[in-house]
Write a structure and sequence with these properties.
This protein has about 450 residues and is α/β, with parallel strands linked by helices. The protein has a five-stranded parallel beta sheet with strand order 10-9-8-11-12, sandwiched between helices. A four-stranded parallel beta sheet has the order 5-4-6-7, sandwiched between helices. It has a three-stranded parallel beta sheet with strand order 1-2-3. Strand 8, helix 14 and strand 9 form a beta-alpha-beta unit. It is globular, with a radius of gyration of 22 Å. It starts with 16 loop residues before the first helix and ends with a helix.
């Protein structure tokens, strides 16, 4: 790992405020310095939601707050937030200043919690972790301080599941991806809580978390602390699928895993899978002649600069369904070391034909270093068309390598994302469309 980080693709722990924004009528209250929230929003927050971006209340901590403490100011901001912003859930999140000065956030927020106000707090301290880690802490804080207190019915409901997958806004396709997961899981007979986004039931849905028959984690490491916490608190079992299911092969694999784990009606699940696969491959068949004739114009190698969740999902789809070989994979989400071997194993066994692949995988948040490695490696394959999966910051590299760039991670400056999804059967078709859109745009 590099000693310095160039072009970081995640924010400090305060970035978990965007997870609050992703909850319907959720209101983040930042106890931080001026500008912290807006800088994070510029990196990962395309769209401000109900009370995000410049709308989010903030104490705007200054030098005097470092000297005398900011508890009085925080109490005032919370009081006025309740008066000015009509929200369903308010979450106080601390920045670096409050963490250094030692403000007793729990005591201040506790005053409002005693009055049964819908408010929780997270002592993040921006420098303590990334927004990936803080997202887990945030969800657990809401469960402990709000759900556990206000959920009146905690009796397990048959067929109800909680899904933990995309980190809102950090995954620029979070809303569409969560909706896509909900759609296919409902297709095999489950009732699905996705908790964030437009297809969730907002705070009312959060209150049903304890009722879930089991929890589903989609991803290699982010969210594991959540499902383990829920297992300890409510005895809720969980099943993990370690990457984004893109396309027919992996989505069907995902659904069969869930159906088996949850003891669902296998015949019903298989009927749904076959129906969706039939539609999926019908679209592929329609384009078969084009794809065959255009095979020499298809990218042959794919490099990624993304998080493990995204990189693994796309790599499996591109190799096994489009025949695009994964080249160097640069995982830039600061994956904890204890999870890295499992991710490398997924790459080793990436081929559905059972053929072992020796894919270079780098776990390094220094995306500047990743670009240098990709440029050096690509020199060995001057005759191979390259697909680059990364962010807007890879635009210059793509131009230098004459590569096709598909922006799949933050920052996303050169594309607008409203409800795009790469999840599931439809997500696989969308991926093919987007790749060939970029390829065909280079022809005259």
């Amino acid at each position: 790992m590099s000693s310095t980080i160039e072009q970081p693709r995640f924010s400090c722990a305060l970035g978990s405020c965007h997870s609050v924004v992703a909850i319907k009528r959720g209101v983040p209250i930042l106890h931080s310095g001026p500008g912290c929230g807006s800088k994070i929003s510029q990196l990962i927050g395309q769209g401000e939601g109900y009370a995000g971006g410049s709308t989010a209340p903030c104490t705007n901590a200054e030098e005097q707050d470092v000297v005398f403490g900011g508890e009085k100011k925080l109490r005032s901001v919370i009081e006025n937030s309740f008066k000015v912003i009509d929200g369903d859930l308010y979450v106080v999140i601390t920045g670096c200043t409050a963490a250094i000065t030692g403000d007793d956030i729990g005591a201040i927020v506790g005053e409002f919690q005693e009055d049964d106000k819908p408010i929780v707090y997270l002592e993040a301290g921006g420098f303590k972790s990334s927004n990936y880690v803080a997202h887990e802490s945030l969800v657990n804080a809401i469960v402990d301080q709000y759900v556990d207190k206000f959920a009146e019915d905690k009796e397990v409901e048959k067929g109800l599941v909680n899904v933990f997958a995309s980190v809102p806004y950090q995954d620029p396709f979070w809303n569409g991806n969560l909706e896509g997961l909900k759609r296919v899981l409902e297709g095999i007979g489950l009732k699905v809580n996705i908790l964030f986004g437009e297809e969730s039931g907002g705070v009312a849905e959060w209150l049903t978390i304890p009722k879930a028959e089991f929890n589903i984690l989609v991803g290699p490491w982010v969210g594991l602390n959540i499902v383990k916490h829920l297992k300890a608190k409510y005895k809720t079992p969980y099943v993990q699928f370690p990457y984004l299911p893109v396309g027919a092969v992996e989505t069907s694999r995902f659904l069969r895993l869930i159906a088996e784990f949850g003891g669902l009606d296998q015949e019903k699940a298989e009927k749904y899978i076959q129906k969706e696969e039939a539609k999926y491959y019908a679209h592929i068949d329609k384009m078969a002649s084009f794809l065959l004739e255009f095979r020499y114009g298809t990218p042959r190698r794919v490099y990624t600069v993304a998080d493990a969740f995204t990189s693994l999902g796309f790599s499996k789809f591109l190799l096994n369904e489009l025949g695009i070989i994964p080249a160097m994979q640069n995982i830039v989400d600061d994956t904890p070391e204890k999870f890295q071997d499992a991710i490398r194993k997924e790459y080793d066994e990436i081929s559905n034909l059972g053929r072992k692949r020796n894919i270079e995988v780098y776990f390094d948040p220094d995306a500047g270093g990743a670009q240098e490695r990709i440029e050096e490696d690509a020199k060995q394959y001057p005759d191979k068309r390259i697909l680059l999966l990364g962010s807007a910051w890879e635009k210059g590299l793509a131009a230098k390598l004459k590569a096709d760039l598909l922006i799949v991670s933050v920052p996303v400056q050169y594309r607008l994302i409203m409800n795009c999804s790469y999840t599931g059967y439809e997500g696989g078709l969308r991926t093919i469309e987007d790749i060939f859109d970029r390829v065909l745009a280079t022809y005259r």
